[in-house]
Amino acid sequence: MAGITDGFTGAVGHTPLIRLRALSELTGCDILGKAEFMNPGGSVKDRAALGILQAAEANGQLGPGGTVVEGTAGNTGIGLAHLCNARGYRCLIVIPETQSAEKIAQLRILGAEVRTVPAVPYADPNNYVRLSGRIAAETPGAVWANQFDNLANRQAHFDSTGPEIWEQCEGQVDAWVSATGTGGTYAGVALFLKERRPGLRCVLADPHGSALYQWATSGELRSEGSSVTEGIGNSRVTANLEGAPIDDAVRIDDPEALRTIYELLWREGLYMGGSVGINVAAAVETARRLGPGHRIVTVLCDSGDRYRSRLYDQAWLTSKGLAMPRKPAPEPGP
Ligand code: PMP
98, 173, 262, 286: least CB-packed within 10 angstroms? Predict the structure, then answer.
């Protein structure tokens, strides 16, 4: 990554691939995390946001002074807001009011116009995604980013995240594990890596409350329970997920995801968001299923800082019936 990058846009991607030492040792596999929290907007969604804007610019939908409208759980909005500032667009974000206060506050700091709305299912016309589509249609000069069904999302990962992983691993990769929100990250990387190495296992990770685990394992879109993780899981198969290879699926519950992010903090020094707990726990489960000697890649989607008042707050965790993991006593040094 030598040299000078051009503005915010030039700084998107090219993230490190981090070997998770404790979990690699535990499983006898190489467990690697793509450090997407190191993108300039702080999450994996910078890549999708950039891909979507570039596609809209290329096809003439978006031009100088235009408006970008999106329904987002937060990270796509944050990526879009940064990019809209950097490229001279207005940014209007519709977000469910259940998302973390940190993400909503950050969107406002970045200058996006933010509309918080009640969290209602996709079938409801007032669902945040559907509402954002209507607002875009009614706003002159606006484009709807439409991250769930706009294939520029997964194309961005096919063109950048996948090739970076392939090169960083020098082609030595046995499994790709990721949760899906829009499906852009999972599908873009899965399609790229599978093309290079057909024997690679693509594993969909899913939280409770999402229908995708059941869909991947039995073909039926059905969900059970719920999750405090944000940005992942879905009740439907998006255009971005459609047609992506899925060889296996793993469902992770919140206590396990929580244990995983605190392990990452205490043992690896990595301060991560909740979806990372689902991803890394699913990577560990995949290592168990494959046995020692394999290399497994997953995504470190965003930082724990976006969830300070939730996943790292004892009172909030208690209110959700979750116990805050306790820090173990340090092991005696050499
Ligand atoms: N983790 C977090 C924290 C996210 O915000 C998102 C995006 N919704 C994802 C994971 C999933 O990414 P994708 O939309 O590419 O499936």
Answer: 98
